Amino acid sequence: MPTKHEQILQYIESLEVGHKISVRQIAKALHVSDGTAYRAIKDAEVQGLVNTIERVGTVRIEKKQRSDIEKLTFAEVVNVVDGAVLGGKDGLYKTLNRFVIGAMKLEAMMRYVEPGNLLIVGNRDNVHQISLERGAAVLITGGFDTTEEVKKRSDELELPVISTSYDTFTVASMINRAIYDRLIKKEILLIGDILSTRETPTALVTYDCISRFHELVRETNHSRYPVTDEAGKVVGMVTTKDVIEFAPEEKVEKAMTKNPITVTPKTSVASAAHDMVWEGIEMIPVVDDYRKLMGVISRQDVIKSLQYMQTQPQIGETIQELSFQGFDEQMDENGKTYYRGRVTPQMTDALGTLSMGVCTSIMTETSMRILRRLRRGDLTVDNITLYTLKPIQLESTIEIHPQVMDLSRKQAKMDIEIRFENQVAVKALLTAHTIDR
């Protein structure tokens, strides 16, 4: 039987998109305490079922598919630009298709205004009105207000009119940044993206006998299974090695490994891969927020997914990739590869010297590039130890020299130096593991 928390989430999910909810309303409808209702609403917000906006309230929104993650709702735009909603609050859950900057004459501007758009414009009341009539929301810059007529019409059409104190250029940059961050997030593969929800996961229950384990092995040809309690929560893992010394009539609970490592659908595939390598495990149970079993992920699943992602075109760039831009590969007199680049303002700390975070990123990136050439397979960094010997100033030209100290089938060790003005400024020792099938 679902818990009160789960019942509230199911109730919220059953509501129509655009429906307003509150703690008091949920508590009254489902006969729960205000505290229970509040926690469930916050969980629903994390899951993308609702969105809470200051001075507006909490609204049921359409949960985005991963393919649409780069699109913003009008409610999210309000948060991005720190805006105030002047009208059309009931339309905040809607998704904007694109935004248009209204820095032109009215006739020219209206050629670009379409339903689902967001028009960014100053205090031009006639433009606000026409934009709404064409099905587009309005974002007013400079902290200006609009007429009561426009506010009334926005309420009728359920199209938000938002005001922000920022100027047009700043607002456009902030929205672009938000969309760009979404694109990067979209590229990060999560366990939920590769987990099959069509198949019911095979599992044992604590009160099952060891003989049941052997039956499953014969049926599925697998040698390890998650173990759940009567409520379906994962409490252990059992493998062929675990049951060797136990009689067929003994309970699985005695043989299982308790409190196994688990992941959730929101865990990144890279993180799961690291856990598998570090702990030497072949399979990880996937659980929900209540630790109930949703499925399992094998090492083969993880490797295939990582290999697939490496073949996909990249849309957004992370800080690590931006930091490494401008570094060119060079070859020294001994035929060894090193990288040369310049310290840009974005790579420095408050004192104008190379940031430790950026320093770690570029040293890791150079090491992984060298290792990928030496052996096939996916690699994950276990540890990096950094020693700063000399500060590196802004606009300095630096050289990064990675050197392999040890390379085995499972592990690699790298010694990395950053040289500045023919002197060693930073040294690091990096250890990486290979993710094998």
From TrEMBL:
Keyword field contains Transcription regulation: no
Organism of derivation: Polycladospora coralii
Signal peptide: none
Superkingdom: Bacteria
Listed CDD domains: CBS_pair_DRTGG_assoc
Positions of the CBS domain: 196-253, 256-318
Keyword line: CBS domain
Stated name of the protein: CBS domain-containing protein
KW Magnesium (keyword) present: no
PANTHER family for the chain: CBS DOMAIN-CONTAINING PROTEIN, CBS DOMAIN-CONTAINING PROTEIN CBSX3, MITOCHONDRIAL
